Amino acid sequence: MAAGLAGLLALGGCMGDPIPAQSPDFPIAAYPDWRAEDAFYRFYPGDKFRVDVRTAPELSAELTIAPDGRVSLPTIGPIMASGKTGRELQTGIEEIYANELRDPSVVITPLEFGSQKVFVGGEVKQPGVFEMPGEIDVLQAILLAGGWTEEGSPTQVIVMRRKPGGEMMTRVVDVRNGLARQALYDIGPLQRFDVVYVTRSAIADQNQFVSQYIRQALPIDFSLFYDVARF
Which one in 44, 48, 99, 181 has a CA-CA gap of 20 to 30 Å to 134? Predict the structure, then answer.
């Protein structure tokens, strides 16, 4: 687990920090770059939207994305809608209706969204899966989980997101200083199934080492002298 987190933290280069040199023994995992266009909302099974065909109102309809990711267009049949942005879906439907209409222009209007959950773990008080009440950011997700613990490092919070093709993107954000320096923090609102992981601070790791390998191993009471875990 520690090795995996170390690999993720090494990806802070997504924010402009230098990426550590590769080691033949411990290679750094190659994650795709975090791109701005990946922040656009993508439809998912359970979402509902309306398609308005300007030149053929009879083809307009309210559609709900089925569990297989498809919707059924009037006179056309099922097409894949899941994983597409509103713009991509609009373009795809216009290309289909271009075979039937002289002006296939359509308007896509989202109506309802299915369950949108985010995973929050690591050094938070109540880790778990949370239903997003709307568009929230990383700090708000951490607050849903009760905030970070005393051992947490709010300056190094890992955000993981899976691209439509299945690839994992990751970004390290600073929720403590990012409110003042937006470049450290601004990745846009969280998306469905994003993972937010609050890492342990360096001093917390040191305290854990002292507790596990020194205090518990010696037959003395450190409180008689001083509590090294407080330093």
Answer: 181
CATH number of the 48-112 domain: 3.30.1950.10
Instruction: For residue 228, give the 3-state DSSP assignment.
Output: helix
pLDDT along the chain (231 residues), means of 10: 44 39 43 56 88 92 92 90 90 91 92 87 94 87 93 89 76 77 68 89 65 54 44 41
- Cβ atoms of 161 and 153 within 8 Å: the answer is no
Which pTM does this prediction carry?
0.58
Task: Report the amino acid identity of residue 175.
Answer: V
Distance (Å, whole) CA 207 – CA 168: 32
Q: Which CATH number fits domain 2-38+115-200: 3.90.79.10, 3.40.50.1360, 3.40.50.300, 3.10.560.10?
A: 3.10.560.10
